[in-house]
Design goal:
The protein is of the alpha+beta class. The chain contains eleven helices and seven strands. β5 and β6 form a beta hairpin. α7 runs parallel beside α10. The protein is rod-shaped and about 145 Å long.
Length: 388
């Protein structure tokens, strides 16, 4: 661990925590301005500017300049009261993020989370800097699946640093929205946090609509007896659980922000915006919770229907076996009846000179009568036992 990180870890032993921001509807920053590929760059020997998607300085809600380097922002920002810097990073290497952390005095624990990524949504305060983790989602119509992204925000008194580890969300729309509304942007870094939160929460709406459509299709497939529906239910349940993990923590984030309105002097208009985001986040979380319950019920119904179909098939097999047994009984009974005269005829057909009744005048009628008596007797026995 570097000396900087060791010092930061020691400094982190003091108590911390206190949220101050929230989200609802909007879009996400600056993927469209990013010329780089999906691959993460090498971590060593790469300047911080290589990971910068967009960077600008604002005063009174208006962009005053877009410095050529972060060094210029870092150098000029302290000498410009009332000025805010907004920097967007995309997939920064560890060395790049550590450089930004050193310039803006970010807390070691927050920086470590941003480096590792794959964090649950949360909001934490380190001194006068707010650290927020959000998970965005988008619905891919062709694949009929949900794609998740992650964004980390460092919100300071005069700067906002966004760190993205995936193509979504695209924060360029958020930047354009705020630059088109100077009054909102003039509220400072918390306005940027609000707009990003709003964009992330708004992005859940098409995802919820897509999942609802998938669930409707699954219900049709379940009652249609599709043998592949169980696998689809399982895969969709995993996506719903993942979306639940993204939306549920937002409610705590919004509560924390609302609790800090008075303490941190949040503008009243911004409070209204944040409450609106909280309402949308609550709606999204409730819908996702409902989806999970619906899928559990659908899975139960599907298991019941499968069991019923299996029972019906077993019943049909049993009935077929019973019918087959009846046929076998009839065939066996007639075979036994026909076997009796055959046996008698075979005995008297043997070529022996000395046989009982062979020269008897009534031998032939006796043999025929015996055959008839045996056949009728067997017929009555089988009939009584319902074999015939």
């Amino acid at each position: 661990m570097s000396d900087w990180r060791v010092r930061a870890v020691r400094a982190s032993k003091r108590p911390f925590f206190r949220p101050t921001a929230r989200a609802d509807h909007a879009d996400a920053p600056e993927h469209s301005m990013d010329p780089r590929s999906e691959q993460r760059p090498d971590t060593e020997g790469v300047s911080l500017e290589r990971s910068v998607v967009n960077a600008a300085m604002y005063r009174d809600g208006r962009r005053i300049e877009a410095p050529a380097s972060l060094s210029e922002i870092y150098r000029e920002l302290p000498d410009r009261p009332g000025t805010m810097a907004w920097i967007g990073l995309f997939r920064p290497a560890e060395a790049q993020l550590l450089e930004a952390a050193d310039r803006f005095n970010l807390h070691e624990l927050a920086v470590e989370d941003a480096i590792v990524a794959h964090q649950r949504p949360k909001l934490e305060r380190y001194g006068d800097t707010l650290f927020v983790v959000l998970r965005a989602a988008r619905y891919l119509d062709e694949a009929e699946e949900v794609d998740f992204g992650e964004i980390h925000l460092f919100v300071g008194p005069d700067f906002v640093l966004t760190v993205r580890h995936s193509q979504a969300p695209d924060l360029s729309a958020v930047r354009r929205r705020l630059e088109d509304d100077p009054e909102l942007l003039a509220l400072g870094p918390e306005a940027v946090l609000y707009a990003v939160l709003d964009a992330v929460v708004d992005g859940y709406a098409p995802v919820i609509a897509g999942l609802q459509h998938d669930i409707d299709e699954i219900e049709t497939e379940v009652f249609g007896g599709d043998p592949q529906v169980s696998r689809r239910i399982y895969e969709l349940s995993r996506e719903v659980i993942e979306l639940q993990r993204a939306t549920r923590p937002l409610l705590e984030i919004m509560k924390s922000l609302e609790a800090g309105f008075g303490k941190y002097g949040t503008d009243e208009e911004l409070q209204r915006y944040l409450r609106d985001v909280a309402d949308h986040a609550t709606y999204a979380a409730e819908r996702v919770d409902g989806f999970r319950q619906m899928l559990q019920n659908i899975l139960t119904v599907n298991a019941t229907l499968v069991s019923q179909r299996q029972n019906e098939e077993m019943k049909q097999l049993a009935e077929a076996g019973h019918a087959q047994n009846d046929e076998i009984k009839k065939i066996s009974s007639w075979a036994a009846i026909l076997f009796a005269p055959t046996l008698i005829g075979t005995v008297y057909g043997m070529n022996f000179d000395e046989m009982p009744e062979l020269h008897w005048a009534f031998g032939y009628p006796f043999a025929i009568g015996l055959m008839g008596v045996v056949c009728v007797g067997l017929y009555l026995i089988f009939k009584r036992r319902n074999w015939l």
